[in-house]
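Throughout this chapter, every protein is written as a compact record of paired, labelled lines. The reader may check this reading against the record printed directly beneath this paragraph:
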Amino acid sequence: MAVALGFFSFAGTLILTPTVQTHGSGTNRAAMAGTSLEAAERIMGSGHFFSAERVMTALEPFARKASISMPRLPESHVVPYSESTLRAHADGNWLLLWDSGFSLSELFQMFGSDAKSQPCFYYNVWWQIYGRSVGELRTEPSYVLVRVKGMFETLSWSEQEVALSSLGRRYYRTPTSTIASAAFVTYLLNGGERSLDVTYHWGPEAVGNNAHVGTGDFVSTGLGVYVWPDSTRTVRLAVSVARAPDF
């Protein structure tokens, strides 16, 4: 099996989504069972599992105010991970949440950059320079298992890629919009808790030939979004890893 980040277009909007390829099994994914929402919450803990219904309820007022359409709730009442996978990631460093698929630009429209209204983004010139090319990338709405606590700090982007590959092909660099959404959802549903409060997640979205987007430093002035040269090495620039579904 291999995991890669693929791009496709839907209604004029680019979609960024992990692509999982399996070989040789011929297994029908539709016939494979996931884990019930109740069991997922029991395993991960309520502060580390955010169901589609909870996420959509939390985001709906912000989307409505920004005149942005909400995606539909999933018909399935299971998450696409086995119970054994969830137990292996229930150490307090991982979140299992519904990624609603909003782009960075959509999230910026929803939450703005006014520090008097929390949570919010930190406003900088990134949005004017790169906002259209990178900010419009969306993800496919789905459940995702994300290690919000970063890994591989002090490494350059390419060195992080090598370190990431050592985890196995089910793990990949989380899209920046997913991390931003996770930060806001955690804040809204966990009583103002701020993930990525002192670090940045270095995402997969390239800007030019030798730089990538990252987001973090989620303090009272807002969630930062910046671009770093790939050669950067700093203890504050890490990777929030995502784990591909089992089913």
Remarks:
- Residues 6-15, 19-31 have pLDDT under 50 and may be disordered.
